[in-house]
Design goal:
single chain, Tumor Necrosis Factor Receptor, subunit A, domain 2, Death Domain, Fas, two-stranded antiparallel sheet, 8 helices, about 15% strand, globular, apoptosis, transmembrane helix, receptor, membrane
C-alpha cells in the first residue's frame, strides 16, 4: 500500500527535496551558521530536517541533521504550509453551505472561504454561521457602507455629501503628513521590537534565578514567579490554566499575530483549527499547547509578546487576574 499522500511523482520530488536540503546544509556549513530551529523536528533521539511545503514526513531520517522521505500531499484534499515535521498532511477546509470558496486548496495552502453575497461574518468573531445583511436603512438615514463578507451594512444620517468632502480631504492630507513624519521612527521601532522583548524575557529570567548582575535594573514589564505556597509539582498545571486568561483577553483579530510572534508554525496553527473546528476556544488552547511543547516557555514570555504587539491592556488585565489567584507574585 502506498504511503498517505504518495503519488506517482514521488521519485522526482524526493530527489528535489534531498537536493534542496543538501544545498541548505552546504550554505549553512560554509558560512558557519546553524539552520534555525524551525527547520528541524525530533524523531526519537535523532534531529531531522523538516520536509518542504506540500509534503509530509513519510519516513523519518536515521542520520542526524538529514532529511527523511517526504511524500507529497494530494492537491485539493490535503496540504501542508511551510516546512513541516508532521507525519501526515492536513485535510483541506470545506466551505459550509452558507459560504463560497474564494481560494481553492492546493498542496501548499489551505482553501479560503467567505460568506455568500447578502450575508456576513464579523472579523472579531469566530465564523460559525453567516449572518443576514441589513437590507435597508431606517427613515432619515442612508447607506454609508454596503454589506460585505466581513461586515454588515452601515447606515448614517442622510447628507448632501459636498461638505463632507471639503472637511475630510484636508484632514486626510494632514493625517498623511503625520504618518509620513512618523513612519521612519515607527519602522525602526518595529525592527528592534522583537529584540527588546527577548531582552526583557532574559532579564526576567535572570532576576528569577537571582542573578546578582541584574540587581537594580528595572524591568520593562512585570516579572511573575510562582509564590512560595505554590508546589513545584503543580506549577505546570497552574501555568496551563493561565492560558484561559489569554484566550479570554486577547482579541480575535490579534490572535494570529500573537501566534506568529510566538513563532508557531502555520502547520501547527492549521492543525489546531482542524482538530477543533467548532470550538474557537479549544483551537487557541491547542495552539498554546503546541507552542509550549516546542518552546517550553513561561507566562512572562507570553505577556512580553502581548506588549510587543501593543496589547498592553489585555496583558495588564491578565497580570491582575494571575496575581489575584495567588499562584504568582510580581518580582519587579
Amino acid at each position: 500500500m502506498a504511503p498517505r499522500g504518495e503519488t506517482t511523482g514521488y521519485a522526482p520530488m524526493a530527489k528535489l527535496t534531498f537536493g534542496f536540503f543538501s544545498f541548505l546544509l552546504v550554505v549553512s556549513t560554509t558560512n558557519g551558521l546553524p539552520l534555525p530551529p524551525e527547520m528541524y523536528y525530533q524523531a526519537g533521539n535523532i534531529r531531522c530536517l523538516r520536509c518542504p511545503a506540500g509534503t509530509y514526513v513519510g519516513v523519518p531520517c536515521t542520520t542526524q541533521d538529514t532529511v527523511g522521505k517526504c511524500f507529497p500531499c494530494h492537491t485539493g484534499s490535503s496540504f501542508s504550509e511551510g516546512f513541516t515535521g508532521l507525519d501526515h498532511c492536513l485535510n483541506c477546509l470545506s466551505c459550509r453551505d452558507d459560504q463560497e470558496e474564494v481560494r481553492p486548496c492546493t498542496a501548499t495552502q489551505n482553501a479560503e472561504c467567505r460568506c455568500k453575497k447578502g450575508t456576513y461574518c464579523p472579523l472579531d468573531h469566530p465564523c460559525e454561521v453567516c449572518l443576514t445583511c441589513t437590507e435597508s436603512c431606517p427613515p432619515g438615514q442612508e447607506l454609508q457602507f454596503p454589506c460585505n463578507s466581513t461586515s454588515d451594512s452601515h447606515c448614517g444620517p442622510a447628507q448632501s455629501g459636498s461638505w463632507i468632502i471639503m472637511v475630510c480631504v484636508p484632514i486626510l492630507l494632514i493625517l498623511l503628513l503625520l504618518i509620513g513624519l512618523c513612519l521612519c521612527k515607527h519602522l525602526k521601532w518595529c525592527k528592534d521590537r522583537r529584540s527588546r522583548v527577548q531582552m526583557s524575557i532574559s532579564l526576567c529570567v535572570s532576576k528569577m534565578t537571582e542573578n546578582p548582575d541584574t540587581e537594580g535594573i528595572p524591568l520593562i514589564y512585570p516579572c511573575l514567579v510562582f509564590s512560595a505556597e505554590t508546589k513545584k509539582e503543580d506549577q505546570e498545571a497552574i501555568f496551563r490554566r493561565s492560558w484561559d486568561h489569554f484566550v479570554e483577553e486577547v482579541p480575535m483579530p490579534k490572535w494570529d499575530q500573537f501566534m506568529r510572534m510566538l513563532c508557531l508554525s502555520p502547520n501547527s496553527v492549521n492543525e489546531a483549527k482542524e482538530n477543533n473546528r467548532d470550538n474557537s476556544r479549544e483551537q487557541k488552547i491547542a495552539m498554546l499547547d503546541a507552542w509550549y511543547q516546542q518552546k517550553s516557555g513561561n507566562v512572562n514570555e507570553l505577556l512580553s509578546y502581548l506588549h510587543s504587539i501593543r496589547l498592553h491592556t489585555p496583558a495588564t488585565i491578565i497580570v491582575q487576574k494571575l496575581l489575584q489567584e495567588g499562584y504568582y507574585v510580581d518580582t519587579n
